[in-house]
Request: fold
Amino acid sequence: MARYDSLLDALGDTPLVGLPRLSPADGIRLWAKLEDRNPTGSVKDRPALAMIEAAEREGALRPGCTILEPTSGNTGISLAMAAKLKGYRLVCVMPENTSAERRQLLEAYGAEIIFSPAAGGSNQAVATAKELAAQHPDWIMLYQYGNPANADAHYRATGPEILRDLPTITHFVAGLGTTGTLVGVGRYLREHKPDVQIIAAEPRYGELVYGLRNLDEGFVPELYDPDVLTGRFSVGAYDALRRTRQLLETEGIFAGISSGASLHAALAVAEKAAGAGEPADVVFVVADAGWKYLSTGAYGGTLEEAARRIDGQLWA
Amino acid sequence: MAVTVSIPTILRTHTGGEKSVEASGNTLAEVIDDLESRHSGLKARLVKDGSLHRFVNVYVNDEDVRFAGGLDAKVSDGDNVTILPAVAGGMR
Reply:
């Protein structure tokens, strides 16, 4: 049954698709969890709706309320769609060095945008949002980096979907941002498959993004639980772009750049398993499709040129 | 064992502005001690109470050392060691 009462009800139950051409050896299978098949086209629809519903249950969010969120992209777009349907006002704090498509989408959904300086990336957006929250005590900041409903959405739905579709899963790979996907899915899978490997693919940006004044300004999301993870890869723009294009060329999947980073880590663990002669079923998350990145030039020209173009941007 | 260590902007005051320096050692701890012998003050920025600073991430060939033994993580000749501050990162 694929009929839903509203767009919000069409959330989740996304396809898990095999990637036979990318699998490095017999007995090693790669699978993509296509989270771009969600209402606004990204995995973030899951935590966004879960956080709103949790705040509604707690009575914090009532019709006409203003939602505030530090977000440079997908979470904002998901929140903007849900806010539009549910009658909330949304204010997003986002770094100025994000792609034009994100801004256009947020504005199309009627969200208000407050820009934070490019230097410092999302760290700065989080700091600015916290200041705004203090100035506007009646605004509701959902705060995806520390809201348990974020990880819980993945514990309750994404994890069970994956295990249902692939009971033989050995590795789960996803991008590391708020850490909600990895922590939520990881906890669920670990409870049912104690030996499962949970691998993070962390984007490595250009130097601008790491421009802190001192190390104590560093940031680790409150949701992060390193005990759930078994490995963590740092993936630069070049490798992320290379894998994004490889995914399109060999398996036909038009994914966003962060998904290329996850594929890079997935192939690394797949090759390790192949080297050890162990069978593996490796699932990685396609967090969104490529549409929002076309203006960055990610899909054309040489990889070196494309990597240079996105170097100062937040590409995942 | 010679390795190449990438230094983030925020720590380059210790390396005279160099983005990348050479070091030797069989473990990450030995590499950091070797760095300290030529780039004084670096160790105190990276290591706190016997383990890596909470907001410092170190990768050997792009793998986070916290999942490979932390300061005891093995390094081999020709490895790339990358030091980065922990930040919120990108488009969430």
User: Anything to note?
Assistant: The mean pLDDT of chain A is 93. The CA atoms of residues 56 and 297 of chain A lie 40 Å apart. Residues 257-275 of chain A form the longest helix (19 residues).
